[in-house]
Amino acid sequence: MRLGIAGGVLASLMIVIGTVTALVRANGPSPVPGVNPLSFLTIPLGDMLVFAILVGAAFYFRRRADVHKRLMLLATIGILACGCGAIAVCFHSTVRSLSLFGLSDLFIVPCLIYDFITRGRPHRATVLGAALIVISHPLRLIIGGTHAWLAFATWLTHLI
Length: 160
Prior knowledge:
Layout: H1 2-25, H2 37-40, H3 42-60, H4 65-78, H5 81-88, H6 93-105, H7 108-119, H8 124-144, H9 147-159
Helix pairs in contact: 1-3, 3-4, 3-8, 4-8, 5-6
């Protein structure tokens, strides 16, 4: 149980530090050439939001090991887009945009396969958590280009 408390504290610190880092980074040049840094801000902030939702749900279901473990694993998979994005920089721009999220989403497939092998069907926590991750990716790209988001992101980055 002490390890779980330490993990909860670490996850909370990750959310705070990740959010602050994303906001500070948005005041500089864009990590992707030709993309407005404020538009790109939807990617790391989206990662932090998805991570917070999944970790919060895992904390809520901490007494149900089957749900808790799946949600924690999916929370980890949800923040892999950054690492996969670093790998994707090596590719052509068309492949890069697909691989940014696509590579991280591939890590969900073994979770579903495991559920099919052990349970004969996917676990509800796996399906809902995976859906949150996968659906959030195109939403970030859509939201990042809107005037409302750019105004909100400008206000948000001026707080830091």
